[in-house]
Each structure stands twice: as C-alpha cells, then as structure tokens.
Amino acid sequence: DSGVTQTPKHLITATGQRVTLRCSPRSGDLSVYWYQQSLDQGLQFLIQYYNGEERAKGNILERFSAQQFPDLHSELNLSSLELGDSALYFCASSVGGSGGFGTQYFGPGTRLLVL
Amino acid sequence: KNQVEQSPQSLIILEGKNCTLQCNYTVSPFSNLRWYKQDTGRGPVSLTIMTFSENTKSNGRYTATLDADTKQSSLHITASQLSDSASYICVVSAGLTGANNLFFGTGTRLTVIP
Asked: What is the pLDDT of residues A46-66, one digit of tens each?
C-alpha cells in the first residue's frame, strides 16, 4: 500500500459525459501528479500540482482539468468524454515539487470505461 | 528528441531463472533514471533511482546498472519468482524541476512460469 488513495476504482460512463476522479496523497506529500495509461501503452504524464499550484503540464487535453485543494487532495475532471478516453488514470504523490527527482508513490488507479 | 526505449517488449522465463531487461535513452541533459514495477491493473512501484554518478544499485533480487556514456541501463532479476510477473518501466528524468521532464518507456512485460 503506497498511502495514495484514489476514488472511484472503476467508472463506466457514456460519451459526452463528465466525470471527476479524486486523489488523496500520502501524508506529508505536497505534490500530486496525474497520469493516463491506455491499453498496452505507456504512462502519459498529464499534470502536476505542488502545494495547490500548478507546477508542470504534460499532454493534457483541453477537455481535462485538475486542481489541488488546500487539504492537498486533488481532482481530475474529464469532460465531453470520448471512447478514446477509456484508460487507467493514476495519481502519484511526492514530498517535493521537483517531479524529476525523488520517488513518486502511485495510487491504485481509476479505471475509466467510456461507452 | 528525448526518448526511452525498452527491450524486449515481452519476456517469458522459468521460475528460478535470471533475466535482464534493457533500457536505452536519448534524454538530455540527464538527471536520473528509475525503474518501476507495475503489476497488472495496479500502480507502478519504484524499484531503484540512479543518478549520473551511480552505475549499480540493488533492491533485493533486483539490480539496476547504468552506463551514462552509452546511455544504457539494465535491470537484472535474480532467481525469479512467480510474483515477479509484471511490467517493468524505465523512466528517465531530463532535469530536476517539473514532472514534464520525465520520459517513460513503454515497459517490458515479464511472465514467470512454474
């Protein structure tokens, strides 16, 4: 158990809908990262927040948005969903804000299926 | 172009045997290289992190090597166990700041059979 929690574990929805994925980082970690992993594909970095502020942005679509709240939990909002958005979405956390150094601890993921 | 390539894509070995997974990268400037283990349907778990000055790092039966000159890394698994069946992902960092400087390989899927 990494200490990072994600809810829900599974999500089934229809095209055009909007969903929210939730992540609670490990106690004491200030950074939260969001990743997308499609079937048989590698991890794709979406976005990083550090202590409530956006720190780095990756290949995140305009239909997707995220935020980190004062209690450091984070939410990833996916809107106007398409079939291709079906994937595993992982949240990770780390102590520092430097995503390129130090260990990231990954949550168990949310499996999203868009029908 | 910053890239991380892993080989083989998949590997099947007998329980108790050793194996070596490869990671070649073209990321520059280099900061560090990490190996993660990802069980099916679960989040990746860090195995090792190596900086430029480190050429070997062990974590139990897992030993990672790094040759910064040739930009190659390997992950050696000794006396494999059924629980080693997973995907192994190589991640290279191009800098200390920002997760958008992390470059991910697509992983090697290892299957250990009895």
From this structure: 999 999 999 988 889 999 999
As given in the structure block, the two tokens for residue B113 are 């059979």
Question: Which one, of A39, A73, A31, lies nearest residue B107 by Cα?
Answer: A39
**Residue A26 region by backbone torsions, left for phi larger than 0, else alpha for psi between -120 and 50, else beta:** beta
Mean pLDDT within A86-108: 86
**Partners of B93 in the beta sheet?**
B32, B102
Tell me how far apart the alpha carbons of residues A53 and A67 are, in angstroms, rounded to a whole number. 8
CB A67: neighbour CB atoms within 10 A? 14
Distance (Å, rounded) from C-alpha A97 to C-alpha A102?
9
Most confident of A10-14, A41-45, A59-63: A10-14
Residues from chain A that touch B96, judged by Cβ atoms under 8 A, are: 98, 100-101
Q: How close is the nearest chain B Cα to the Cα of A66, in Å? A: 15
Say yes or no to pLDDT of B9 above 80.
yes
- Count Cβ–Cβ pairs < 8 Å, chain A vs chain B: 76
A26 touches chain B (CB under 8 A): no
- What 8-state DSSP symbol labels residue A60? -
CB B97 to CB A98 under 8 A?
yes
